[in-house]
Amino acid sequence: MFINNLLNKKTRILLFLFTILNSSLSYAEEANQIIDKGEIVMQEIQDGAVILLFHSFGDDNQPDINIGTEQLDNLINYIKNNNFNVIPLAQAVEIIQNGGKLPNKSVVITIDDAFKSVYTVAYPKFKQAGFPFTLFVSSGKVNDNNSAYLNWNEIIEMASNGVDIQAHTVNHSHMTKKEIKENHNEIDSNINDIIKNTNIKPIYFAYPYGEANQEIIEMVKSKNIVAGFSQHSGVYNNTSDQYYIPRFPINEKWGTLERLKLILNTKPFKIKSITPNTPYIKDNNPPNISVVVDDSIDDMSQLNCFRSDTGKVSLEKSDKSFQMVFTTPFKTGRTRINCTIPNKDGTYKWLGLMFTNDK
Ligand SMILES: [Zn+2]
Fold first, then answer.
1. Residue 326 and residue 26: Cα distance in Å, rounded?
2. Contact between residue 109 and residue 52 where contact means Cβ atoms under 8 Å apart
3. Residue 285 belongs to domain spanning
4. Which residues have a beta carbon within 5 Å of ligand 1, which is an ion?
5. What number of CA atoms fall less than 13 Å from residue 174's CA on the CB side?
6. pLDDT score of 45
7. 111 alpha carbon to ligand 1 midpoint, in Å?
8. What is the 3-class SS of 137-169, one letter each residue?
9. How far apart are CA 132 and CA 107, in angstroms?
10. Which value, in Å, is the radius of gyration of the alpha carbons in the chain?
């Protein structure tokens, strides 16, 4: 019985790849259709999607935002050989926001900025693997024909083959340090650049550096954007802030196969509420962070939280909530907090938070 299932699954995946390679449809459309038909959907259903965030590929000059080509190959092979379903971002957002069910082991690939290596390294590999992906384009360098970045012809070619093109400002500035008028222009002009060159109207927005405050989030909402994306860890689920959605940043340091296995197998950490409900430190430094967890979390005894600059956070736990106790203020720049609860099968529930402090 088990062997039968295994063979069937392998046959289905081979058929799936064969169909992709021989289709006149874009591979993303094909992936969508086949997922819709249910041919590769496993019986288990998951209620969250692991979103990976990349920047550049095979470019050793910027290790903080780069992943090596061998690391990328290892990642692609691991995803392919372990029954993950790489789904388009739109499928994840639509299902999570509308209360549907995701394919089991859903993974979403996103790439920010528009470096040249997206076209020269990542696109051919993802295309061959049949993995759809979203590119959040920062359009200033593209408009300038900067050779380290994509040009519009390359973006158009990828878009016509199913790559999803979304918004990421024109100049990639630290938005929390800018005037409101300037931020409006950063978003509006970026959306106009993308529409003008590709005929695609972006509906998703990625905050540069993942930095935002409440005013910027409200601004993004006001522009017919349906989801906003940050750069902190965690599994996207229906209790995530839909305008500050977590993505796992992948680079040379955080792109080892061991860590990627951990990330890809992570489960949603569902919450009911979090206070303060803003990713920005204003007068409240250090903030009093308290979290009310979802009913699906019934044992918090092994809950642990770590702060990026100071390490383990002391927690005051009660049955369905916990508070973080900080003794030192958050430093200038970005501070991340990662909270995890181990599951019995060796995986983790993972809640990531990120705060920006400009003072
Ligand atoms: Zn960026």
1. 50
2. yes
3. 271-357
4. 112-113, 208
5. 9
6. 60
7. 9
8. ECCHHHHCCCCCECCHHHHHHHHHCCCEEEECC
9. 10
10. 20
Amino acid at 148: A
Place of tokens 């792109």: 255
Distance 286 CA to ligand 1 centre (A): 27
- pLDDT at 328 (0 to 100): 95
230 close to 247: Cβ distance less than 8 angstroms? yes
CA–centroid distance, 194 to ligand 1, in Å, is 16
Q: Which residues contact 112 (CB under 8 A, 6 or more apart)?
A: 53, 54, 55, 135, 136, 138, 168, 206
Residue 311 and residue 336 share a domain: yes
Of 9-13, 189-193, 316-320, the poorest mean pLDDT is in 9-13
What's the CA-to-centroid distance between 346 and ligand 1, angstroms? 33
Helix, strand, or coil here: 248? Answer: strand
Q: Can you tell me the distance from the alpha carbon of 307 to that of 344, in angstroms, rounded to the nearest whole number? A: 24
Ligand 1 centroid vs 304 CA: distance in angstroms? 29
pTM > 0.85? yes
The share of the chain scoring above pLDDT 70, in percent, equals: 87
Provide the domain count of the chain. Answer: 2
In this structure, are residues 60 and 66 in contact, taking their beta carbons and an 8 Å threshold?
yes
**Distance separating alpha carbons of residues 121 and 134, to the nearest angstrom:** 15
Query: Do residues 157 and 60 both lie within one domain?
Result: yes
Residues 52 and 86 in one domain: yes
